[in-house]
Amino acid sequence: MMAFQSVDTIRILPEIILSAFAILVMVLEPWVAARKSALGWLSLAGVIAAALATLKTAGSPGLAFGGSVSADGFSLFFVDLFLAIAALCLLGSIHYLERDRVHHGEYYALILLATVGACFMAASTDLIMIFIGLEISSISTYILAGFKRQELASNEASLKYFLLGSFATAFFLYGVALVYGLTGTTNLLRLREQAGGSPGAALAALALILMFVGLAFKVSSAPFQVWTPDVYQGAPAPVTAFLSTAPKAAAFAVLLRIFAGSLAGSGPVSFWVLWISAVLTMTVGNLAAIWQSNVKRLLAYSSIAHAGYVLVGITAGGAEGVSSVLFYLAGYALMNVGAFILVAHLAGRGERRVDVADYTALAAARPSAAALLTVFLVSLAGFPGTVGFFAKFYVFRAAVHAHLIGLVTIALLNSVVSVYYYLKIVVAMYMGEGETGVSAAAMPNALRAAVVLSVAGIFYLGLYPAPLLAALARIPKPGL
Questions:
Q1: Which ranges constitute the DSSP H helices of 382-443?
Q2: Domain segments of the chain: what residues?
Q3: CA atoms within a 13 Å half-sphere pointing along the CA-CB vector of 273
Q4: Residue 71 parent element (H or E)
Q5: For 110-159, how does the pLDDT look when each residue is reduced to its tens digit (9 = 90+)?
Q6: 178-182, 402-406, 456-460: which range is least confident on average?
Q7: Residue 395 pairs with which residues in a beta bridge?
Q8: Average pLDDT, stretch 281-289?
Q9: Peptide bond into 223 cis (omega under 30)
Q10: How far apart are CA 168 and CA 471, in angstroms?
Q11: Banded pLDDT at 477 (limits 50, 70, 90)
Q12: Burial environment of residue 435 by CB neighbours within 10 A (0 to 12, 13 to 18, 19 or more)
């Protein structure tokens, strides 16, 4: 029995370490009132320790706690991705919190706990465990969105996120209840074994749609994306960087587990739900972004559009489709986190300089900052030489191989449209005349490290995608 428990513990060791460091940060917070930045570095040490623990977990693959959690290549990929996102966001937050005078230790603890929730969502093979991970992540991010308690926009963001998030969670739970009523189990592995044998095909399809609604909220998929622009704009920018990547990737991991196996037997229902949502999400995100003058809001709609591209890969399905989605999520994390934390720095105290007009002539005043932001923008647009190009290429190729020519055509047209609003910022930085309105403050070392690491990852995966793709191809795909 002790040996069994020990193996179970090893298989969730990264989550245990993150939780322990979150508790430690909260305990030490009153004792380091004068040096809150130390808690940020302690949290970063916790993330590094959890990353090292994944090596131990990888050496003991398998199911844990009665088959409710899986330590496999699929889940470990997402755990590593979430840890990378958390590390970059922590590096981008330390100076930001000091500058805006909201430096409280619970911020770092909440980032760690939100990461724990995301890890459990990706690693869980039971719908109840997925729900627990979803709640751990959601509650932490609800608080983070409203972390600037003195600002109405931050309070509004937190309230909208909480109310709509709770509503979406109810849909997910109703779907789980239907699944249990039909099959007598919430375990995804057992559901896969029963695929096609459910006595209520119509109810199974309804359960899948209800769960999709709950997860679609998290990934900002249309028509459940209405909260995204307001929350991303009102939340502190480093929090927005986290919100737009980690919880979204965790929800996509759950979608892959459900739609690639388990309830995939619902046939055309799941296909058309994904197909229609992908089209709506890409189109709404890109068309709405064209009219935005606020950079954070523009990037929020961009995030919606990218969720649509990921849904193209999920709709394609198969091993190639899943691998392309994993590659896309890795590249998207580098692009979006880097863009948001750099915008947070350029916006200055209180994030007052976030209009496109504020970036006028930035290249003349701060050429290095303009160059870095340009890299993030052209990668998000999908220019060759960056990870954004290959991310879209492999997703679209998987869809072509799945004979989804119409869906790929719509995705390509949307990708062309997106170039306009990304280059709108680049044109302002390099061709605009006048004085730049962004902050002239020097970039702190922690932020510089996060931005440089993001740019390095963008170019490395944009020029040498083969090693990561080969590694992803070896990962056993859920349900395949």
A1: 387-401, 405-431
A2: 2-473
A3: 19
A4: strand 69-71
A5: 999 999 999 999 999 889 999 999 999 999 999 998 888 888 888 888 89
A6: 178-182
A7: none
A8: 93
A9: yes
A10: 34
A11: confident
A12: exposed
Query: What is the tally of helices (H) and strands (E) in the chain?
Result: 21, 2
**Structure tokens belonging to residue 478:** 């859920």
The amino acid at residue 44 is: L
* Burial (CB count within 10 angstroms: exposed 0-12, middle 13-18, buried 19+), residue 156: middle
Residue 376 has pLDDT above 60, yes or no: yes
Given pLDDT bands bounded at 50, 70 and 90, which one contains residue 4?
very low
Cα distance between residue 405 and residue 399, in whole Å: 7
Two structure tokens written together for 82: 């979430």
For residues 132 and 134, what is the distance between their CA atoms, to the nearest angstrom? 5
Distances 20 to 24, 136, 282 between C-alpha atoms, Å: 6, 15, 39
Residue in the structure block whose two tokens are 């991991």: 253
Contacts of 416 (CB under 8 A, 6+ apart): none
Name 64's bridge partners.
Answer: 69
For residues 46 and 112, the answer to whether their CB atoms sit within 8 Å is: yes
| pTM flag (> 0.85) | yes
